[in-house]
Write a structure and sequence with these properties.
The chain has about 230 residues and is mostly helical. It is built from eleven helices and no strands. Helix 4 packs across helix 9, helix 4 runs antiparallel to helix 11 and helix 5 runs parallel beside helix 8. The longest helix has about 30 residues. The protein is globular, with a radius of gyration of 18 Å. The protein starts with a helix and ends with a helix.
Length: about 230
């Protein structure tokens, strides 16, 4: 392996490792954001776009899942299709959850989001065919898990009991911010992965990378279920 390939592989593994470690605190809302959300009144388009983008960039669980989704997608149109399905799914439940005031337990929904990462790593490792003899519909799975990811976002927003005045435009702005953040973060991931894909080490270390994905997802599931049972 050349030095360049070693550096690229190390960078990617560190990238996944950092995401896995920080996945335990994914979806955190800093004090400035909390203060804004609890004190805001009326329509605030730009602040909500910013909060949505920041939430997605620091939402390591969402990004880990998307890394798994695009890991073996080598054509741009496939990446666009799958990311669009995920976007459609989480947009539906984000907007529906907040505007309809549908509340779900934050620990349980975040545990399901963690499970989505486990699922995708297991799928990329060929686990379904190897152990169960069938392959789930990958497009449907991405869409369905996107719905759960959207409920996770909705749950965090609802914790702040946003005032009804300006709620619809504010939530739409938040969703736009989420898509902007997702676009920016995923763009960086795709650049790194495209560079790594030029080398044979990409497929050589695919098993290790997807095992890391599963590990990160399992950590998140365990953390959230522990929080559910002790809260």
């Amino acid at each position: 392996m050349t030095g360049t390939m070693t550096n690229v592989m190390t960078l990617f593994v560190v990238f996944l490792g950092v995401f896995a470690s920080f996945s335990l605190s994914a979806h955190g809302v800093d004090e400035d954001t909390k203060q804004f959300l609890t004190q805001n009144e009326g329509v605030s388009i730009l602040p909500f776009i910013y909060i949505g983008a920041k939430h997605m960039v620091t939402g390591y669980d969402h990004l880990l899942f998307l890394v798994g989704v695009i890991f073996f997608l080598f054509r741009s149109k496939d990446v666009l299709l799958y990311v669009s399905l995920f976007t459609l799914g989480h947009s539906i439940t984000l907007l529906f959850g907040v505007l309809s005031d549908i509340r779900v337990n934050a620990y349980l929904i975040d545990a399901i989001i963690g499970f989505s990462i486990v699922y995708k790593g297991f799928d990329n490792l060929g686990g379904f065919k190897r152990f169960f003899g069938f392959q789930p519909n990958t497009k449907a799975a991405v869409m369905i898990f996107g719905l759960f990811h959207g409920f996770g976002l909705a749950t965090k927003i609802q914790e702040f009991n946003l005032p009804q005045e300006g709620l619809v435009p504010n939530i739409l702005a938040f969703n736009v911010g989420v898509e902007i953040g997702q676009f920016l973060a995923l763009g960086v991931v795709l650049i790194l992965m495209s560079f790594w894909r030029r080398h044979g080490s990409y497929l050589q270390f695919s098993t290790a990378a997807n095992t890391l994905l599963m590990s990160g997802g399992l950590m998140l599931v365990g953390f959230q279920l522990t929080g559910f049972f002790v809260s």
